[in-house]
Amino acid sequence: KKKEAVDAMGISMALVIAGSLSLAGALSSTGAGEMIGGFVSNFAHSVGGNSYIVGFIFFIFPFALTQFMLNRATMLIFHPIAIATCASIGANPVGLMILIQAACLSAYMTPMATAAVPYLMSYGGYDQKSMIKQSLPLAIICCIVSVGWIMTLYPLQ
C-alpha cells in the first residue's frame, strides 16, 4: 500500500515533500529558527506586556514561520520562548502556548507548513497562488478570533 500511495502521488509532489523536510531541518539546525524566536521575545518585552499585542506577536510570527517550516518544529521553537517571556514579565504562559498551537496548526498556505498540503495541491490541482488566495481571508479571521478570544480568557497578568 505504501508503494501504491507513493506511485499515485507523482514525482513532483514527492520532491516538494522532500524539499519541505530539508528546509525545515536546515532552519532548525542552522539556528535561524532560534534567531527569529529571539527577535519575537525582544519585541514582546518592548511593548510592556500588553496581552493583545503580545498575543498578536505570538500568533503572527509562528504562523509566518510555519509557512516555511513544519508546524511541530515551529511549536518546539516558540513554546520555550513564550515561557521565558512570561517568566520575565511575571505572567501566566497558558494563553501564549494556546496561541502558538493555534497559529502553527492553522498555517496551511504553503506545502512546507504541513504534509497534507502537497497532497491537497496535487489532487485538487491547486497552485501556490491559488492556495494563498484562498487561505488568506481565513488566516486573517483565525488570527483575529484566536488573539481576541484567547487573550481575553488568559490575559497576561
Task: Give the topology.
Layout: H1 2-9, H2 11-30, H3 32-46, H4 51-66, H5 71-89, H6 94-105, H7 116-124, H8 128-153
Helix pairs in contact: 3-4, 3-5, 4-5, 4-6, 4-8, 5-6, 6-8
Radius of gyration, whole Å:
17 Å
Largest sheet: none
Count of extended strands: 0
Q: Based on CA inertia axes, which overall geometry fits?
A: elongated
Number of discrete helical segments = 8
Average pLDDT works out at 81
Proportion of strand residues: under 5%
Structural class, by secondary structure, is mainly alpha
The helix fraction, in percent, is over 70%
Kindly, what is the distance between the CA atoms of the first and last residues, rounded to a whole number of angstroms?
Answer: 52 Å
Low-confidence stretches: none
SSE sequence, one letter per element: HHHHHHHH
What would a concise description of this structure say?
The protein is 80% helix and 0% strand.
Protein model, in words:
- This protein has 157 residues and is an all-alpha fold.
- The chain is 80% helix and 0% strand.
- It is built from 8 helices and no strands.
- The chain has helices spanning 2-9, 11-30, 32-46, 51-66, 71-89, 94-105, 116-124, 128-153.
- Helix 3 packs antiparallel against helix 4 and helix 4 packs antiparallel against helix 5.
- The longest helix has 26 residues, at 128-153.
- It is elongated.
- The model has no long low-confidence stretch (mean pLDDT 81).
Kindly list the characteristics that best describe this protein:
157 residues; mainly alpha; elongated
